[in-house]
Amino acid sequence: MIRIYVVDDHPVLRTGLHSIIERETDILVVGESGNGAQALAAIPTLAVDVVLCDFDLPDTDGLRLTRKLLHENAERKVLIVSGLDDSSIPRLLFDAGARGYLTKASSAHKLVYAIRQVAAGHEFVDDALPRNVLLGLSPFRRLSAREKEVAALTVQEYTTRQIAEVLRVDETTVRTIRSRVYKKLGLRGAISLSKLAARHGFTDQGG
Q1: Do residues 60 and 127 share a domain?
Q2: CA-to-CA distance for 18 and 25, rounded, in angstroms?
Q3: Which of 93, 152, 151 is nearest to 125 (CA)?
Q4: Which of 96, 91, 113, 9 is nearest to 58 (CA)?
Q5: Residues 174 and 120 placed together within one structural domain of the fold
Q6: Where is the Response regulatory domain (predicted)?
Q7: Which residues span the domain enclosing 150?
Q8: Tens digits of pLDDT across the chain (207 residues)
Q9: Are residues 70 and 146 in the same domain?
Q10: Pairing mode of beta strands 78-82, 50-54
Q11: At 124, phi and psi to the nearest 5?
């Protein structure tokens, strides 16, 4: 069961979120509040898997609240919902440790999917964001330079042997690095890597 805490100062929106989440058998709302102070007081007393938080709150904002929540417990998973049209906000939130960013125009299906992704330890970035923002939030940014090289060559369908020759390392090293790439990105193999790379324009940007 995924346990959710909702932070939003609009009662109508909180009710709407409840109605969406209550349809799911694996997600449960364990608490809610209308501002950051209430959330900071309540969340430590509950077993919460994901904090679903509006960015614009009466006493703070999603960025400051994310920082405070993660300062108390670095393992907390925060999913921000925002209606603001500011391309700098998503990057700041992810840099602060947020695990997901969802626009308020998103469908109920996308909301539920985002919750499950974040709860599973993956990042979620709303694909409704402008392309330049999506590129700035690419999960590939978490890879080292060498990992990016292996990922890029894998996407280009180079074999393990060919990658080893290009990078002048042995094949075992290539396999080790590639496994690390899959683990960091939460992927199962080359096909899912290629799909993720296409979505974020990874190879178009040269890594």
Answers
A1: yes
A2: 13
A3: 93
A4: 9
A5: no
A6: 3-119
A7: 139-200
A8: 999 999 999 998 888 888 898 899 999 999 999 999 999 999 999 999 999 999 999 999 999 999 999 999 988 999 999 887 666 788 889 888 899 999 888 899 999 999 999 999 888 888 877 666 765 677 887 788 899 999 999 999 999 999 999 999 999 999 999 999 999 888 889 999 998 888 777 875 444
A9: no
A10: parallel
A11: -130, 130
What is the pTM (predicted TM-score) of this model? Answer: 0.69
Whether 82 contacts 54, CB under 8 Å: yes
Return contacts of 117-126, CB within 8 angstroms, 24+ apart. Answer: 118/50, 118/77, 118/79, 119/2, 119/49, 119/50, 119/77, 120/186, 121/77, 121/186, 122/186, 123/94, 123/99, 124/79, 124/99, 124/100, 125/90, 125/100, 125/101, 126/101, 126/102
CA nearest neighbour of 119 among 43, 48, 40, 38: 48
Output the six-digit token pair for 149. Answer: 């090289």
Residue 205 lies in a domain: no
Lookup result for tokens 């590129």: 135
Give the model's pLDDT for residue 125. 85
Residue given tokens 């925002």 in the structure block: 82
The CATH number linked to 42 is 3.40.50.2300
